[in-house]
TrEMBL record:
Protein name per Swiss-Prot or TrEMBL: AAA+ ATPase domain-containing protein
Residue ranges occupied by any AAA+ ATPase domain in the UniProt entry: 325-469
Database matches in InterPro entries: AAA+_ATPase (IPR003593), NNH7 (IPR054567), P-loop_NTPase (IPR027417)
Region (Disordered), start-end ranges: 1082-1115
Tree of life domain: Bacteria
């Protein structure tokens, strides 16, 4: 790409190629390391800029003679840029040297690193109005806007230490003193421009100075020179060869540095897009090497990965190690995280003498081709000519080829081709090259979620890109704001503050989405107008509307206000179709063909038709809808029968908001239709076919964000008057189980779903929306006239468990079903409400079963007296029972009431632990054949539950002393329940009470038998139990707060242990700890924290987090 503008440092590089002093100064200026040049203040910098600038333009005639046309043009533009910068510094010095100036050059001392950065940006062109080529015809240059002090000079001065010591009056004087700067700089620029026109004929033409006799002969020379330059260009063309191709490739890659950070079509009018060279921020990330069980797509796999704040040293290290020649380097990240931009920067920055970067966009090559062919196709497409792999490598002897394969996820998503062995093929390609003595490094990029579809060679380095942290967000805002302060100020707008951007951190953390926020706010400060109460839903509505409006204005500028509003809504409806197409398929993406089918079935009027498709053929509907939206990412790939495309949103929440928007809008339309029909004399049946089609393939509760967005939309749209919505949803729910008659039929089937599956999704969505519009809904309202509404409810709720797991569990986390009053059996009722996420009352979940068979008074543990923590598997099990009104399971829980009340609240968690070491000993006591002696072959661990171990200890029959104390499993259960714990809770107290009973049984047995049956195994087991209990008591540092753990309850258990242990001090200490609970009321059992909230359970060998890992079953 031809560079559109040159900064001052670029100009120095162009004109000082043979001058080491100029190049060194340019590099220092570009890197912001002026202090290393001994530049103490602005005066010193001014002298350096003027001196080096004059040196650069000395001998311009020679510098533009005998070179190519491009070199001549670039050098003339560089000279023009230097004139402008030097004119500014000349004028700035004159302004500051004027009598009465409140600041002198000597006052502007550099005291902070930020000042170097500010002035470096200024010198490199921020705040400098683009100079037209050719410039205005006024000989005095009065039309040339050279510098805006508000854009760059004042921010620099305000960053100086001297500014902090000035009064408001003095600061005003400084600002006033800088006001003449633009006009003075323009005059100095015009003077220098005229002088240089004698050596640069093009200047005379651009400035329309040909009428001056003094320059006429130079104009004539220039005209001749233009012809000579054309001949020179022809004469300097190198013979076709690969060396030329590499030069072209290098220039192509490096051109990205001077491209704007966003395509200009995405920015509002007037926005200044800083170049990538200044705007690209080095990314951070994490590194791990793959092993046999690597799961790079899982978040927990990265927990132990090393964090790098800057990936540059890491990438340099990897590329300079031998291993990178034998296996690929994989870069993972979410959409918009900067994967592709990072590969572009690598291609641009890798030194051409040592490396040969070859970047391949996998979306543009044959998806099923061998690696070598993909590289050849990708590079050939870049160079617009065919080139072979062998030619490329032979042309750069000594350089390491670095093949960058960008977009492995696109190759998989768009084509559906099974290339799970792709990374292995890359490794084989590398190995073949290494065997031939021509090693090659390969970098592969992919979305994180797609990594699960690839097999990783052993020891493959995998880097996951980190989202922007607060510092990077601040720095990118600084780059953008410095570039746009002038135009924002001129429009009466403000730069985006950091605190505003951080309010939307989920977007600001992704580089591309942060740029989207900046673009959005640059247009009328739209992001700042919302203030602190600017909700997430409203943000997405404004973002989508703003970008849609920009597209409409771009293509339909003639529309009036009403037409514009309708066109914008049409654009948003098209996006809604896209979001729903993904949602109903339970995916985050949709293919072009799938979307086209959905458009035809649901909203045929939303398709954009092209009257004259031209030579390229008719554009697919999906491409028409999505091709113009900034926040939609297209994953494309090529197959032999054509191109395939897959679309996804840059951030999943865009799609989630649009799904909520779709359903709420459709619901609102139905409410309006229903109210309108009610006013008619002969109302027609309400046509709900479109709403049913959209709501019967997936449950919105499966996406928590969709539920939140729907609640926000309903709140903003409906407010407090929700009776009409409630009535409609109740009506739709009551009709849902019956055949749909009198309805139009939509030919819409995104996937083959059964009638039951669609009923489940549809009714689940109705109930979800119902609890969003109503605080509480009695089942009697849904089933009027029913004696037991919960039984009728069970007919519908039973089908919900057949929904996909994420949707079912999401529904449980959205809707709570509460069975109230069944203990007293007076006014018993069942209500629905939105999940409050507070502790779960057991009776409210299973109480309905208390009265399923009996009407008499109850003498069992009252489940309404028991609560369990919201987080945990027991809570999910109970809420599942409540929702499904599952009688048999609920009765089993009722029978476990004493355990829940007195021991613990964890009924369903599997705990994973290392197997008992003794099981590896062939001489150990035989185990039941049903229990694997060495744990799972997959994980090497065994699974167990607390409730099973406690019940086994308490309820297992006691045989002879030999069988009791030689039972390794019994000792193992004691160890698992007590080992690694440092707090005493209800479960531990129960286990200690059982241990005291075992000790007593053993003592009585020895006393009665005289020790005849005493055996070494029994002695060993007894010793292990004594060691387990004593060790636990030594570790106890606290007692859980609760009345059932007061000293009155704890002391008897400890006293029962005392005769059997040599641990009097520990027993007394633990009893003293329990005394802190003595003032608690025994009736206030809810004050005790359930054990599941705090226990760090352990076993013979603890897991990574200090105890066995838990595995929750499905509810």
């Amino acid at each position: 790409m031809v560079k559109k503008t040159l900064s001052y440092t670029d100009a120095l590089r162009v004109l000082g190629k043979d001058d080491s002093a100029l190049l060194d100064f340019a590099e220092r200026l570009a890197d912001g390391t002026l202090g290393m040049l001994g530049v103490p203040d602005l005066f010193g910098l001014r002298e350096q800029v003027l001196r080096h600038g004059r040196e650069a333009i000395t001998g311009m005639r020679e510098k533009i003679t005998g070179v190519s046309r491009w070199d001549r043009t670039e050098r003339i533009e560089a000279a023009n840029q230097i004139l402008r910068i030097t004119a500014f510094f000349e004028a700035l010095g004159e302004v500051l040297d004027q009598p009465g100036s409140p600041l002198k050059p000597a006052d502007l001392e550099f005291t902070r690193d930020e000042q170097y950065a500010l002035l470096t940006d200024a010198v490199n062109g921020y705040g400098l109005a683009p100079a037209p080529l050719p410039p205005a015809a006024h000989g005095d240059g009065s039309a040339l806007a050279v510098w805006s002090p508000e854009a760059s000079v004042l921010p620099f001065v305000r960053g100086l230490a001297v500014w902090e010591g000035l009064s408001d009056t003095a600061r005003g004087r400084v600002e006033d003193s800088l006001a003449p700067l633009p006009a003075l700089a323009q005059r100095r620029y015009a003077e220098s421009y005229r002088k240089l026109a004698a050596d640069v004929p093009e200047f005379g033409v651009w400035a329309n100075l040909a009428e001056h006799d003094e320059t006429r002969k130079h104009v004539d020379e220039m005209r001749v020179g233009l012809a000579g330059m054309e001949e020179l260009l022809r004469g300097t063309l190198a013979a076709p060869g690969t060396r030329r191709r590499l030069t072209e490739l290098e220039r192509y890659y490096q051109a990205v540095l001077d491209k704007p950070m966003l395509p200009s079509v995405e920015a509002p009018e007037g926005a200044v897009l800083p170049p990538v060279r200044h705007a690209y921020l080095n990314l951070g990330g994490r590194l791990r090497f793959t092993g046999p069980n690597a799961q790079p797509s899982a978040d927990d796999w990265w927990e132990k990965a090393h964090r790098y704040d800057d990936l540059q040293p890491l990438l340099v290290s990897l590329l300079t190690q031998r291993d990178c020649h034998l296996r690929p380097i994989v870069l993972l990240g979410h959409p918009g995280a900067g994967k592709s931009q990072l590969t572009r920067m690598l291609a641009a920055r890798l030194p051409s003498g040592d490396f040969l970067p070859l970047r391949v966009k996998l979306r543009s090559v044959q998806a099923d081709a061998p690696i070598r062919v993909q590289v050849e196709e990708g590079v050939s497409a870049t160079l617009n000519t065919r080139v072979s792999w062998r030619e490329l490598c032979d042309s750069a002897p000594g350089a390491l080829p670095v093949v960058i394969l960008d977009g492995f996820d696109e190759l998989l998503q768009a084509t559906g081709v099974n290339r799970s062995d792709y990374l292995e093929q890359v490794q084989q390609f590398q190995e073949r090259q290494a065997d031939m003595g021509s090693p090659v490094a390969v970098i592969v990029t992919s979305r994180t979620v797609v990594a699960e579809r690839a097999r990783f060679p052993a020891r493959t380095p995998v880097i996951r890109l980190a989202p922007f942290d607060e510092d990077r967000i601040r720095r990118l805002l600084g780059v953008w704001n410095r570039a746009n302060t002038a135009q924002l100020t001129a429009r009466g707008l403000r730069p985006l503050p950091l605190e505003t951007a951080l309010r939307y951190r989920e977007l600001a953390e992704q580089p591309l989405l942060l740029l989207m926020l900046l673009v959005f706010d640059t247009d009328a400060n739209a992001l700042q107008q919302g203030g602190a109460a600017f909700g997430r839903g409203e943000l997405y509505e404004r973002l989508l509307t703003a970008f849609a409006e920009r597209e409409v204005r771009k293509h339909h500028s003639h529309l009036d206000a009403d037409g514009l509003s309708r066109a914008v809504e049409d654009e948003l409806r098209r996006l809604e179709v896209v979001a729903m197409a993904m949602f109903v398929r339970h995916r985050q993406s949709v293919t072009s063909d799938e979307l086209g089918g959905d458009l035809s079935a649901l909203f045929p009027e939303t398709a954009v038709h092209v009257a004259d498709p031209g030579l390229g053929g008719r554009i697919a509907p999906a491409d028409q809808v999505l091709g113009r939206f900034f926040f939609v990412h297209e994953a494309g790939a090529v197959q032999r029968d054509g191109r395939r495309s897959v679309y996804e949103f840059l951030h999943a929440t865009f799609g989630e908001y649009l799904v909520a928007r779709t359903l709420v809008n459709e619901l609102s339309d139905l409410v309006a239709d229903r109210e309108h029909a009610a006013r008619r004399r002969s109302p027609a049946p309400l046509d709900t076919s479109r709403f049913y089609a959209l709501s019967s393939f997936a449950a919105i509760a499966g996406r928590a964000a969709v539920v939140e967005f729907a609640a926000d939309l309903l709140e903003r749209r409906v407010g407090g008057d929700r009776a009409a919505y409630r009535a409609l949803l109740v009506e739709l729910f009551q009709a849902a189980p019956y055949p749909r008659t009198g309805q139009s039929v939509l030919d819409y089937q995104p996937y083959r779903a059964t009638v039951v599956q669609r009923l489940a999704a549809h009714t689940a969505n109705l109930v979800t929306l119902l609890v969003l519009v109503a605080d509480e809904v009695d089942l009697a309202e849904l089933y009027p006239g029913s004696a037991r509404p919960w039984q009728d409810w069970r007919d519908v709720s039973g089908v919900w468990r057949a929904m996909p797991g994420d949707q079912w569990h999401g529904f449980l986390d959205t809707v709570r079903v509460r069975h109230l009053g069944f203990w007293e059996n007076i006014g018993a009722r069942t209500v629905l409400c939105r999940e409050p996420e507070d502790p779960v009352n057991v009776g409210e979940c299973v109480g309905f079963e208390l009265r399923s068979d009996v009407a008499e008074a109850l003498d069992v543990t009252n489940p309404y007296d028991i609560t369990v923590p919201y987080d945990g598997i027991t809570s999910r099990l109970l809420r599942s029972m409540a929702t499904r009104a599952h009688g048999s399971v609920s009765r089993a829980v009722l029978m476990l009431g004493p355990y829940l009340k007195h021991v613990g609240t964890d009924l369903g968690s599997w705990l994973l632990d290392d197997p008992d070491p003794a099981s590896a000993d062939p001489a150990a006591v035989d185990l039941d054949a049903s229990i694997p002696p060495h744990g799972s072959l997959r994980t090497g661990k065994v699974a167990w539950t607390e409730v099973n171990d406690v019940l086994e200890l308490r309820l297992a029959p006691v045989g002879s002393a030999g069988s009791l104390f030689s039972d390794r499993r019994r000792n193992l259960r004691y160890m698992r329940l007590l080992f690694g714990n440092d707090r005493l809770g209800r479960l531990e107290l129960t286990v200690l009470r059982q241990a005291a009973e075992d000790f007593g049984y053993f003592a009585r047995f020895l006393s009665s038998s005289g020790g005849e049956d005493y055996s070494p195994p029994a002695e060993i087991s007894l010793g292990l139990l004594r060691e387990t209990v004593s060790g636990y008591l030594r570790r106890v540092t606290s007692v859980v707060s609760g009345p059932l753990l007061s000293s009155r309850h704890v002391r008897p258990v400890l006293d029962a242990l005392r005769p059997h242990l040599q641990a009097s001090e520990d027993l007394d200490r633990v009893c003293g700890l329990a005394a802190a609970n003595d003032l608690l009321d025994d009736s206030d059992v809810t004050r005790e924290l359930p054990s599941g909230q705090w226990r760090s359970t352990g076993g013979p060998s603890q897991g990574e987090n200090g105890g066995p890992s838990r595995s929750s079953g499905s509810a």
